[in-house]
């Protein structure tokens, strides 16, 4: 009975009215999905009824997103509760952690609002569902770019830890979120394919292919910018240690390789599928029906960012253990007040922040260059 009722709703014709008046039309989403998957309404209903169960892939995805939320929450707590981390670089790390936490939360919400539940949404709800994911992912990527910009400025400018650093930090963080919200909100503002089915994406059936191509272009430019910045950082550091040991340069190269390698590994599959989506006809590229697998690799980036950008700091690792100790997870019979003992040593990243607070020579001549 429920299946028949859905089929009747899906067969309701979509009238050609103004785009914004369609935002609450419940028959619009089914018609777009039927077109995107090259199915009839009856086939579409049967397809999503069969996928109603939470499969193993979705269970794994939910577990992964829960890990993303918990580990990034741990980063935020560590940065907030320890005054030692109240410096610009750690605030950038905290911003990255917050964007990844939001991404993990948006992924979980997307899973439970997908499948057959998609057809219970009106277009404006669908735009919010997908737009939140785009905003979170964009904020994570822009945060990586902001960190790269900050590190590049830090090693090339004199007195980089002066009064202007706080202003630059807030400007970069603010620009990150404003740009992300704008990028993710463009479809609900009007850049979508409502009333224009031939221009619709096969992966995201209410999004315009031109918008998908625009997003891929923006993310590709960000990737290129990060590569250029970190290559420049490495070249500057290498040239400044010509007479010294090569260990700092090798350590920096290792860090840069990890950052760029993980970023490319996680995002390249998603970029590829989106690029195919913007250029292929629906029935020509059957791989588009497996897009969720490709996007799962992009999700891994949010899980690995805390590992790359925080666990390389010895003090951050110690703070993680202290937080877990206070939660009773790693207490191991130790007194509770031991959890609040101040840290006695500083990591290379923290030394880099404190040592050059009033520095009058470029940071590249110091040993702190490995804390990128």
From TrEMBL:
Native source organism of the sequence: Betta splendens
Keywords noted in UniProt: Cell membrane, Disulfide bond, G-protein coupled receptor, Glycoprotein, Membrane, Receptor, Transducer, Transmembrane, Transmembrane helix
GO biological process entries: anterior lateral line neuromast hair cell development; cardioblast migration to the midline involved in heart rudiment formation; cell migration involved in gastrulation; convergent extension involved in gastrulation; embryonic heart tube morphogenesis; embryonic viscerocranium morphogenesis; endoderm development; mesodermal cell migration
G-protein coupled receptors family 1 profile domain segment(s): 71-309
Membrane topology category: Multi-pass membrane protein
Residues that span the membrane, as ranges: 56-78, 90-113, 133-149, 170-191, 211-231, 252-276, 291-311
Highest taxon of the lineage: Eukaryota
Protein name as catalogued: Sphingosine 1-phosphate receptor 2
PANTHER family per the UniProt record, alphabetical: G-PROTEIN COUPLED RECEPTOR
A Pfam family per the record: 7tm_1
One term under GO cellular component: plasma membrane
SS bond list: 193-200, 280-285
Subcellular location: Cell membrane
UniProt xrefs under SUPFAM superfamilies: Family A G protein-coupled receptor-like
Family classification: Belongs to the G-protein coupled receptor 1 family.
Record-level Gene Ontology MF annotations: sphingosine-1-phosphate receptor activity
């Amino acid at each position: 009975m429920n299946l028949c009722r859905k089929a009747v709703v899906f067969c309701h014709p979509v009238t050609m009215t103004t785009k914004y008046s369609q935002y609450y039309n419940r028959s619009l989403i089914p018609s777009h999905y039927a077109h995107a998957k090259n199915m009839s309404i009856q086939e579409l209903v049967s397809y999503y009824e069969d996928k109603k169960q939470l499969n193993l892939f979705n269970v794994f995805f939910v577990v992964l997103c829960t890990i993303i939320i918990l580990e990034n929450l741990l980063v935020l707590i560590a940065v907030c509760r320890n005054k030692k981390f109240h410096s610009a670089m750690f605030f950038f790390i905290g911003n990255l952690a917050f964007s990844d936490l939001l991404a993990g939360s948006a992924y979980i919400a997307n899973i439970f609002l997908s499948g057959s539940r998609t057809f219970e949404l009106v277009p404006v709800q669908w735009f919010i569902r997908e737009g939140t994911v785009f905003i979170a992912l964009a904020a994570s990527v822009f945060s990586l770019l902001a960190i790269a910009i900050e590190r590049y400025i830090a090693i090339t400018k004199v007195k980089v830890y002066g009064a202007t650093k706080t202003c630059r930090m807030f400007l970069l963080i603010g620009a990150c979120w404003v740009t992300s919200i704008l990028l993710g909100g463009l479809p609900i503002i009007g850049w979508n394919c409502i009333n224009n089915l031939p221009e619709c994406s096969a992966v995201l059936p209410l999004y315009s292919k031109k918008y998908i191509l625009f997003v891929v272009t923006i993310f590709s430019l960000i990737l290129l910018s990060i590569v250029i910045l970190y290559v420049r950082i490495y070249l500057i550091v290498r040239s400044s240690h010509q007479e010294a040991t090569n260990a700092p340069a090798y350590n920096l190269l290792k860090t840069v390789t990890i950052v760029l390698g993980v970023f490319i590994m996680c995002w390249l599959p998603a970029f590829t599928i989106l690029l195919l989506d913007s250029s292929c006809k629906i029935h020509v590229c059957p791989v588009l029906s497996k897009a969720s697998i490709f996007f799962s690799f992009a999700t891994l980036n949010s899980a690995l960012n805390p590992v790359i950008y925080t666990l390389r700091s010895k003090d951050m690792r110690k703070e993680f253990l202290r937080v877990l100790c206070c939660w009773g997870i790693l207490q191991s019979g130790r007194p509770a007040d031991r959890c609040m003992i101040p840290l006695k040593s500083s990591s290379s990243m923290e030394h880099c922040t404190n040592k050059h607070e009033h520095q009058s020579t470029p940071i590249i001549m110091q040993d702190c260059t490995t804390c990128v």
